[in-house]
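Dear support,

I submitted the protein below through the web form. The confirmation email said the job was done, but the results page showed an empty box. After a refresh the structure appeared. I'm attaching both so you can tell me whether what I see now is the final result or a partial one.
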Amino acid sequence: MTLDPERDLEITRTIKAPRSAVWAAWTNPASFEQWWVPAPALCKVETMDVRPGGALITRISEGGSPFGPHLSACYLEIDPGKRIVFTNALVGGYRPAEQPFMTAIITLDDHDLGTAYRALVMHRNPDDQKMHRDLGFYDGWGTVAAQLAALVEN
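What the results page shows now:
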């Protein structure tokens, strides 16, 4: 997938672990909860139905607060061990979401050191891309990619 610099944001990283470990961290709720939100915030997976049309619903707790809404999305494509595509433009069962914002394509490729990890996040227009960037996309998605790497590299 080609990056559209006006509408897309991207994080890439080499993770020193096999693709199978990275895949497991993306598809196992207990593992996903360990890295999906930047620490010290906490994540709770409410639903993880890893199949096209399945729901991905997470909740977040920051500073000891009760868990609140974080992500409500729908998986669009699952290529086991290689690719996950999800969007919050839809919820589980392909139902339209109330506030669509982004579609993410997670790609895992073999690399001499382990896994070439790429998260491409597409937005409907440049304003949404800018808002996501200004909200801290690179810090947030970069931090969770680092947390993912730390989890699977150990």
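Response: this is the final, complete result; the empty box was a page-load delay. The two ends are 30 Å apart (CA to CA).
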